[in-house]
Amino acid sequence: MYRSKRIPCVLLALGIPLASQAALAGYSFEYENLKGEINLTAGAASVTTRGANFGAGAVDVRSLENKGSKVGWQEAYLKPGITLDYSLSDTLSLLAGASAVAAGTYGDGDAGGFTRSADNCINTEEAYVGIRAGDWKFTAGRQNYIIGSGFIVMDGNLDLFGDGAYWLGPRTAFKDSAILAWSHGPVQAQAFTLRTDDHYGDYRMNGVNLDYDLDGQVTLGAMAMKVDTLASKRSNATRRDGMQVYNLRALRGQLPGVPELTLNGEYAVQRGGDGPLEYDAKAWYAQADYQFQALPFTPTLGYRYAVFSGDDDLADNTQKAWDPLNKGFVDWSTWLVGDVVGNYLLFNSNERVQQFSIKNRLTDTLALGAIHYQFWLDENNFRGAEVDDRRFADETVVYLDWTPNERFYSSLSYNWVQAKSAAKQAFGDDDRFSALELYFTYRY
């Protein structure tokens, strides 16, 4: 299953919190009852990997050609967009929005073998209409949607093959979607129906989501949805007929008297099943971050433990391995867990991850950070092949983020992965798998 996305959303690729999106206005205009905004986002990246697949080499998914253990490539994209708001009265407005993405991959193609040199495409990204009436808002068409931190639902379009730009992943909109949202004070609720692209397996998610801001101390949330595959049964798409997904979460939690400490956690299960396959999977995490505000560079120390269940019996009719569905990318490690492991090896299924992090604010525009991950398999198999030990790998990243203003973001990182018992057995080698990454995004 292809489940990795490095930067699936332009604004989130900037590492900017969701609440900051409104501040990043493009060119605004207004004429009588009509107002709108025209914006443009650009991104580019250069990535060089060594020891791909621990020395076994990167394999092109389409041709099965081994490209060798040294792979270097570049990616770029442009995304122009427009939003419109036509006021019918003080409480009633008509809404519309559209955007397109032009993206491509160059060089050797990515280290996962999902794109090749000259894979490129121009696609419609967003194209929706809607209406706002008081606390209610309804939109339909191609549009973006995120639940919580993007742990399960955020990215509806996987950038594979001819799309280009797999690592940057600029396409995120769900197609054939409709969202009915209600917001009043601390409460936000949505009923939604979302359809993914073919690369994800062409399935639909119907559900409801609720968020409650408890006096700024914590945001509590709950989600329930049903998943059904729309792709033809003659296709090789993964079937998810009748899957039911339930999620509880507590985000941005603050303890009284300890403002430096931030707590996050979620728990989710997958149940049900309308066909021969039943679902019995779970995923959860608990995270704590503490910022030392009195120390130079105000370092933030973090710890997270995450579990994505695996399957102990691949031959029965019950799927116990967690299906990551449409996870997104918000910031380092969320929810691309390990820039190398998460992009090319494990995709938030059948894994347990212990994560240690530190981030220092060197100046107002420079941040220096490091993250160390320890990976285990949840069950003793890797991509269906039995392994003797669950200890998979360790990954470490050191990164430097430069944000001279709210519109421009760039990052330079070095990531290296050391194979442990399970990875050595699965790949037959234990070379260091490393990646040197440089990228930027700019939004006007």
Automatic annotation (TrEMBL):
InterPro entries according to UniProt: Alginate_export_dom (IPR025388)
Domain Alginate export residues, every copy: 131-379
Superkingdom, natural source: Bacteria
Key words, A-Z: Signal
UniProt cross-references to SUPFAM superfamilies, sorted A to Z: Porins
Signal peptide, first to last residue: 1-25
Protein name per Swiss-Prot or TrEMBL: Alginate export
Annotated source species: Phytopseudomonas argentinensis
